[in-house]
Design goal:
Number of helices: 8
Helix content: over 70%
Structural class: mainly alpha
Largest sheet: none
Shape: globular
Number of strands: 0
Order of helices and strands: HHHHHHHH
């Protein structure tokens, strides 16, 4: 029998079930990992969906922090659980459709890459898993605002 270590599970979860190990653009691959979760959970009321996103984000902070210790890099490109949490937040209350998924995905990638204030501040000043995840949650909030104005 093969033994699976705690570090293996943390690395697997932090990488978005392996999406962060795909070539060239791990953050983009990781962001795509949020879409199946949204299609699965998007039918929930906004309150339940938000509760699940909050719980997922709390777990993501812990996982990202532990993964940073394993990889010996606080925000390793392999860690994409933060992108999943951020885009899931950006999709709160958004109607399930391909157009909305595409718009939210593109907006989130823009905000995640550009990191307008306060996302840049969060990434630079919050320790460990908090800095890794909260800057993406800020990008998710920015995505959510634009989605609420133009796409809902």
């Amino acid at each position: 029998m093969v033994e699976v270590r705690k570090d293996d599970w943390i690395a697997f979860l932090a990488s978005g079930c392996g999406l962060g190990t795909l070539p060239k653009v791990p953050g983009t691959w990781g962001s795509l990992g949020a879409l199946p979760l949204w299609f699965l959970l998007g039918w929930l009321s906004n309150g339940w969906y938000l509760l699940l996103v909050i719980l997922f984000s709390g777990a993501a902070i812990w996982v990202a922090d532990e993964a940073g210790k394993i990889f010996k890099v606080v925000d390793s490109p392999v860690i994409v659980i933060d992108e999943i949490a951020g885009l899931m937040l950006g999709l709160l209350g958004v109607s399930l459709s391909f157009t909305n998924a595409l718009a939210a995905f593109l907006l989130f990638r823009f905000f995640d890459i550009v990191k307008p204030f306060p996302a840049d501040w969060c990434e630079a000043n919050l320790p460990g898993g908090y800095g890794v995840v909260i800057d993406d949650l800020v990008a998710g909030i920015m995505t959510w605002i634009v989605m609420q104005i133009f796409f809902v």
